[in-house]
Amino acid sequence: MTTIDTPSPTPAQTPPVRGPVTSASYSITVRLSADGDPASIGRIATAVGSAGGAVTAIDVVESRSDGLTVDVTCSAADAAHSEEVVAALDAVDNVHVRKVSDRTFLLHLGGKIEVSSKVPLKTRDDLSMAYTPGVARVCLALADHPEDVRRLTIKGNTVAVVTDGSAVLGLGDIGPGASLPVMEGKAALFKRFADIDAWPICLDTQDVDEIVRTVELIAPGFGGINLEDIAAPRCFEIEARLRDKLDIPVFHDDQHGTAIVALAALRNALRVVDKELAEVRVVVAGGGAAGTAIVTLLLEAGARHVLVWDREGILSPDDDRLSPAKLDLARRTNPACVRGELPDALVGADVFIGVSAGNVLPVEALQHMAERSIVFPMANPTPEVDPIRARAHCAVVASGRSDLPNQINNVLAFPGVFRGLLDARATEIRPGMLLAAADALAAVVRDDQLNANYIIPSVFDAAATEAVAKAVEQTARQIPGATVDLDEDGLPV
């Protein structure tokens, strides 16, 4: 799921609209007692449907001569909708709600990741080699040859997922403890999609110096650093300083992962509408971490006409209200000092990319875009404009939602990026690697597959991670000084 920076609400925003599609993320299991009437199960299913829920399973837990105990599993559109479904069930004649279990919370009980041993520890010999006294020989060898640490320890396949909990999944500043489930999930995705061992590092500070120093101190145990959910503009300085200090890659997924997938999706969307990146007019909503990275990568890829909108309006270099980061963004995108609000920027535009806040754009504004327009409202959990209604006005629509076609999801990028970086023994990450990742991801969608509803591969398409990893590894090896030098046997020199 794409992480974004959320500006303060503006008067143009409207109350969130419940999505038309139910989701497993709001899935519940309701234990019910019902009478022995054979029609009870039918009335239960009908009640869920009448409340707008979707029944996924009805299991009989206990059967008695006078009735049944059943577990009804169903999905809803949001938390309030789940309560409406439960109320509808409780209103069924001769049915009593005994217990409601939220399946998402149940999945998180005890956490989502664990540490397991890669070697057997069953005998005295196993212990003597994996631990004392045998391990001492390996430690002494590494003291003499520190370049072998990546080869003889977990460092070569381990990433630290570092956050201060200040900009979590569009939820904002919820702190390090509350952010831990997200970081656990990120670590699980690393393992699932790229077989990388990642670990959450949730820091109880938002002080730039403390964060930089802490990461610097733990870096010897990791092959890469994934910065996650750190608010702008603090994240820019943290990333820059760590890249300068460390000899391992530092990657801010909220910025660069989002940018890679957005560019890949845009490349294919432009193929659908037969337009060129250098010629189209692009509007980006959101001048925070994700928006800045997207604009930077678009410009690197050859885009020439970009405007950025945020809470101050269209970012203009003559606006003295802008922060240094936004002023730099304005100078790189708006030399003509165009002013106005988001609908103004969209007049005649070919592409809209949103990484800002939910419902900041009225759907009617899309009809003023150029013909065969492309719209990517990616704010999470509520997009800038309803993607379903947007389809009436645009040729191609993509969003961060998993329940609609064309999901722009960072999991398409970061596992492959780090797989490639680790395999190349990269010491840093360069813009060329990001462009290579985006191009490789776009190319996963073959010409015979490409259409307006399929511009980006599924997150479960193994070819996506493999293609991105290969492109990043090859590009890293071609850049002088970007990787550890190896001898002809593949060993560090």
TrEMBL record:
Superkingdom to which the source organism belongs: Bacteria
Q: Does the keyword Oxidoreductase apply?
A: yes
Reply yes or no: does the keyword Oxidoreductase apply. Answer: yes
Query: Per its UniProt record, what Gene3D superfamilies does this chain match?
Result: Malic enzyme, N-terminal domain, NAD(P)-binding Rossmann-like Domain
Residue intervals of the ACT domain: 29-105
* Chain positions covered by the region annotation Disordered: 1-21
Q: Where along the chain is composition biased (Pro residues)?
A: 8-18
Molecular functions per Gene Ontology: malic enzyme activity; metal ion binding; NAD binding; oxidoreductase activity, acting on the CH-OH group of donors, NAD or NADP as acceptor
| Keywords annotated in UniProt | Metal-binding, Oxidoreductase
Give the family, as the similarity comment puts it.
Belongs to the malic enzymes family.
Q: Kindly provide the name given to this protein in its UniProt entry.
A: Malate dehydrogenase (Oxaloacetate-decarboxylating)
Q: Which organism is it from?
A: Klenkia soli
